[in-house]
Design goal:
single chain, about 375 residues, alpha/beta, Arc Repressor Mutant, subunit A, Rossmann fold, 2 domains, seven-stranded mixed β-sheet, 9 strands, Methyltranfer_dom
């Protein structure tokens, strides 16, 4: 009898019960984490975390009144968050509070704010049926199938890096790029999404001019509106374009932010970027901080990367009959090989310590 033919009773008697119990406990904890993330997303959607941003403790009644929600639902939500340790609870006073270290993560505009990611992950649930079908047939899910929660949440999450890291840490680590932007550069952002990166750059570098390209029409429409609202439409424009087919014009600086690993034709896209980069130009490539070797990616963050690959990165590439690199597919090892094949010069990994991303400065 093979292992696959063993009955449940026979199987459990051949394994140490303590090991089964330990693994069941781990799965229970992981399942609880999904529930906690869902509750945190509800808190973000209703603005509940912001009620606690001042650090003060509140009873259920006080919290419900300030948040404008039902007291009974407030009690259950508070209890869930306190049970997981996101909130503290004082039995003597009945007061709940958000620890100071949790405020930038859950309740404030910061580079480590997770509210946008929670919204984005919730948005992915809408495509689960399509994803499971793709498992059977090897196809993908096109971008048009993903709803507003995914796109809006993704913008909010990545916006923390653009607002708080791009001008303050990433660009100072690339002095040659920063000098060009200060003097006045022609800049293109390939896979610009809703335009947050270029809008931030335009606000910091008024002498430069910026063009964003993306294949997703809804994102381009949102980017144009955001640029108008930010008052930078005079120096930032957005075009719906498949950049792999070639970029119009040439540029001093070209950027991609978590784009190459998603691309249907990453080799062709890199060649197009190289062709559009001026002789002394710079390509700023931000992509996933992962290894080409699976054991080096072991752990919670690696599991997240591979999961988001299944739910979006891999699937949208395969939907275009693409390469399907996946979230971890444009790691440092692969990035160096592919950039060299595309005709770039030096690929320099900047001294940026970020768990999610590697920032490369690539010469023409």
């Amino acid at each position: 009898m093979t292992t696959t033919q063993l009955t449940t009773t026979q199987l459990t008697t051949t394994i140490n019960p303590a090991e089964i119990e330990a693994f069941a406990g781990r799965v229970t904890a992981d399942t609880s984490a999904w529930m906690v993330t869902t509750m945190a997303m509800i808190g973000d959607r209703l603005g509940l975390w912001q009620v606690f941003a001042d650090g003060a403790a509140r009873t259920t009644a006080e919290f419900a009144g300030q948040a404008g929600i039902s007291r009974r639902y407030a009690q259950e939500w508070l209890s869930s968050m306190a049970s997981h340790g996101y909130l503290t609870y004082d039995p003597a006073t009945g007061g709940f509070a958000l620890p100071a270290a949790a405020v930038p993560v859950l309740a404030a505009d910061s580079p480590v704010y997770f509210g946008g990611l929670h919204q984005a992950l919730y948005g992915l649930t809408a495509v689960l049926d399509r994803i499971t079908d793709a498992f059977r047939h090897g196809n993908g899910v096109p971008m048009s199938e993903y709803g507003d929660d995914w796109w809006e949440g993704l913008e909010r999450f990545t916006g923390g890096a653009f607002d708080h890291l791009l001008p303050q840490q990433w660009l100072p680590a690339m002095p040659a790029v920063q000098r060009r932007l200060e003097a006045g550069a022609a800049v293109a952002d390939v896979g610009c999404g809703r335009g947050r990166a270029l809008i931030v750059l335009a606000q910091h570098f008024p002498q430069s001019r910026f063009t964003g390209f993306d294949i997703h029409p809804e994102s381009i429409a949102a980017a144009r509106q955001a640029a108008a609202e930010a008052g930078v439409s005079d120096r930032v424009v957005f075009e719906c374009l498949d950049a792999a087919a070639g970029l119009p014009g040439t540029y001093d600086v070209i950027t991609t932010f978590d784009v190459i690993h998603d691309a249907a034709e990453p080799d062709r896209l890199l060649r197009a970027i190289r062709a559009a980069l001026r002789t002394d130009g710079r390509y700023v490539c931000v992509d996933i901080n992962a290894s080409h070797e699976l054991p080096a990616n072991a752990g919670p963050l690696g599991a997240y990367f591979y999961g988001i690959s299944v739910l979006y990165c891999l699937s949208t590439s395969l939907a275009q009959h693409g390469a399907g690199l996946g979230t971890c597919g444009f790691n440092e090892h692969t990035a160096r090989l592919m950039c060299a094949a595309a005709g770039f010069g030096e690929v320099r990994r900047t001294e940026i310590d970020n768990p999610f991303n590697i920032v490369y400065e690539v010469s023409a």
